[in-house]
Design goal:
Layout (H helix, E strand, L loop, with lengths): L1 H46 L1 H4 L2 H4 L10 E5 L2 E2 L4 E3 L9 E4 L7 E8 L13 E10 L8 E4 L11 E9 L17 H7 L3 E10 L12
Parallel strand pairs: 3-9
Antiparallel strand pairs: 1-2, 1-4, 5-6, 5-8, 6-7, 8-9
Keywords: Membrane, Transmembrane, Transmembrane helix
Family: Belongs to the phosphatidylethanolamine-binding protein family.
InterPro entries: PEBP, PEBP-like_sf, PEBP_euk
Length: 216
């Protein structure tokens, strides 16, 4: 009887040990997978030029790009973080947008995130351009220019100029602000039920300025 009890206790102990080891292995695998996902997410974040350039945070909340946005300045397509001078942006950019349905309309805004200077941007944001009611698959000439284009003229430091495309709820649903300085892209989008779908930014400094923008 004692021998049988001893075997039962031993088998029970062995079962507990196997359960413990199995639980431990599952926990280790789950933690490893979670760490991999975290590293992948961090890698994606650090690779996002809008995040690296401070556009996400200073001007926009995180969003997922879902519509193509092509910005041409002097027949050159603009990529995030490229360096320009005021002489390059005297005329309004040529902008084409993607999408699928002409009955879908978009609003485009262009702002300076560093007005009047990156070290003291108390006029942030300064609105340089706004076009509403742009049909999908067309360009800004098909929209309604509600704030005419004002060419960038940075006087101090290197400024970030952001072009943002928003999807509208419908036609004639967006109302322009009354002034350009201290424009707030987030508030404007919220007040007009706009959803960001694409953005691109470039750096610009005075004509004879030197150096590049340092990422904090």
């Amino acid at each position: 009887m004692h021998s049988q009890l001893h075997r039962t206790t031993k088998e029970r102990y062995r079962s507990y040990l196997l359960i413990f080891l199995f639980t431990l292995i599952i926990s280790v695998i789950a933690n490893k997978k979670q760490n991999q996902n975290t590293r992948m997410a961090s890698s994606r974040d650090y690779g996002d030029p809008l995040l690296v350039g401070g556009i996400i945070g200073d001007v926009l909340n995180p969003f997922t790009s879902s519509v193509s946005l092509k910005v041409l300045i002097n027949n050159r397509e603009i990529n995030n973080g490229c360096e320009l001078r005021p002489s390059h942006v005297v005329n309004r950019p040529r902008i084409t947008i993607g999408g699928e349905d002409l009955r879908t309309f978009y609003t485009l805004v262009m702002v300076d995130a560093d007005a009047p200077s990156p070290s003291n941007p108390f006029l942030r944001e300064y609105l340089h351009w706004m076009v509403t009611d742009i049909p999908a698959t067309t360009n800004t000439t098909f929209g309604k220019e509600v704030m005419f284009y004002e060419s960038p003229q940075p006087n101090a430091g290197i400024h970030r100029f952001i072009v943002v495309l928003f999807k509208q709820l419908g036609r004639d649903t967006v109302f322009p602000p009354e002034w350009r300085h201290n424009f707030n892209t987030r508030d404007f989008a919220c007040n007009n039920s706009l959803a960001p779908v694409a953005a691109v930014y470039f750096n610009c400094q005075r004509e004879r300025g030197c150096g590049g923008r340092r990422m904090e």
